[in-house]
Amino acid sequence: MTASPPIPFIDLKAQRSRLGGTVDAAVARVLEHGQFILGPEVRELESQLAAFCGAKHALTCSSGTDALTLVLLAKGIKPGDAVFCPSFTFCATAEVVALVGATPVFVDVIAGTFNMSAAGLERGIATATRLGLRPALVIPVDLFGLPADYDEILPVAERHGLPVLSDAAQSFGASYRGRSVGTFGVATATSFFPAKPLGCYGDGGAVLTDDDQLIEVLRSLRVHGMGTDKYDNIRLGMTGRLDTIQAAVLIEKLKVFKEEIAARDRAAAAYTAALADVAIVPQVPDGLASVWAQYTIRLRPGRRAKLAADLAAEGIPTAVYYPKALHQQQAYQHFPVSDGGLAVTERLVDEVISLPMHGYLDQATQGRIIEAVRRALG
């Protein structure tokens, strides 16, 4: 009997096949005009990104991490400041806070959506105040492609006079009650890492905002803090530009992005319908739309390793996002957690496992995955 071929976790080759020669032609145009830094494709992409989500401004940059950093620098986040973020996320969310000298304060999440809990945020603000820190900024994360609960989080932040920076590294293209990701808070940071729903062929990111003053500061910070001339720097900045070649790639990918989002949603619906009786499947609250950066199920503790091994034996990859929460990792253990602890977060790290998910997951391949999952969990 011939073994079934291995299944990719994210099939970038299928997407490249669909795009055909358009990406090659776009890259060739950049090679021809030679404006490799801040060339015309960068400006065109920024215009298209802003139009796509309805933000007034978009500023591309070198990574999702740098997108977060640029906003922290622009908002003057500094030592003594407390910045509130979930512990159940990728390290970049808290990393940038620590790198500018401020203190990340970790708050809990909601089990059903994996996103920041408004009640946890309230506890985190109280904790920071008790510790003598200055509450300064809130960074909700739209984990796995689903927007955080902004109707609950924004009022808490407003009551305490805190700006909100949306970490949409995984959720560009999603929507929340009729509003697109990219239009919440003072700014939104996103990532174009290749595995993201909208990814380039290297590192890349963007900041989206409606704030005219903020975008001017961000443009300066992106190029070493330059003023009207790049040799007249008016503030401390960084090198945070998106390469023109990556902008050209993203312009072509953006043309098929809405269709890919719809395909991801169909694949997620198929997983949910087939697996709801054998696992805890992800929830999408009414009025929200996810871009399904990951399709993550939850299992009783102790079952995950066997499922991963059984699927691997059949050529089906899985991933765990995240095996350790940030407050459990060596680099972040000394930062404060909100009073009352992070019980939901600590439970999730033992339960979650993600299945293959992308916009080119055909029915036959997905059927093979579903059958294997059901066998393993049966």
UniProtKB/TrEMBL annotation:
Catalytic residues in the record: 196 (proton acceptor)
GO biological process, one term: polysaccharide biosynthetic process
Residues annotated as transmembrane: none
N6-(pyridoxal phosphate)lysine: modified positions: 196
Pfam family name, one: DegT_DnrJ_EryC1
Enzyme class name: transferase
Recorded GO MF terms: pyridoxal phosphate binding; UDP-4-amino-4-deoxy-L-arabinose aminotransferase
Key word Transferase present: yes
UniProtKB keywords: Aminotransferase, Pyridoxal phosphate, Transferase
Family (UniProt): Belongs to the DegT/DnrJ/EryC1 family.
Protein name: UDP-4-amino-4-deoxy-L-arabinose--oxoglutarate aminotransferase
Name of the encoding gene: arnB
